[in-house]
Design a protein that fits this description.
about 35% strand
Length: about 130
């Protein structure tokens, strides 16, 4: 399994969070993109939309399945990766870089997220 960046936080629904001040950059993990297979479509919220921790904020479709995206944080969407409209495969090729999904101005401290070591242990129990 690929090593997950240690500067990120991870959710049980396989999204990652990189805190940058009071903003969070959110994407899907290597584990998620590998489980989904080749991603063919990404549906994201609009800038200005509000997201809630553990609430759905969009979806990804792949050759294998469709999957809801679950927000690891609450707040207002300040940015959306529009490059994914034409190149959703960036979620596969660079899930922690060019494959980011949304930026959120966070309201409150993110809770219930795991560090990289805890997330890798969690993934190991997922039977992957």
């Amino acid at each position: 399994m690929a090593t997950n960046p240690t500067d990120l936080l991870y959710s049980k629904s396989h999204e990652w969070v990189r805190m940058e001040g009071d903003e969070a950059v959110v994407g899907i993990t290597h584990f998620a993109q590998e489980s989904l297979g080749d991603i063919t479509y990404v549906e994201l919220p609009l800038v200005g939309d509000e997201v809630s921790a553990e609430g759905e904020f969009g979806s990804v479709e792949s050759v294998k399945a469709a999957s809801d995206l679950i927000s690891p944080v609450s707040g207002d969407v300040t940015g959306v990766n529009t490059a994914l409209e034409d190149a959703p495969e960036k979620c596969n090729s660079d899930p922690y870089g060019e494959g980011w999904l949304i930026r959120v101005k966070v309201s409150g401290k993110p809770e219930g997220l795991m560090d990289a070591a805890a997330y890798e242990a969690f993934c190991a129990t997922e039977g992957h």
